[in-house]
Amino acid sequence: MVDKKINSKLENKKPVKKVIKQQVKPVNAEAENYDATDLVMGRLSSFIAQKLLTGQKVNIYNAEKAIITGDPKAIVEDYLKRFQYRAKGNPEKGPKYPKLPHLLLKKTIIKMMPPTARGVNASKKLMIYIGNDEHKKLLSVETAKIKQGLKYIELSDLCKKLGAKW
Question: What is the pTM of this model?
Answer without folding.
Answer: 0.76
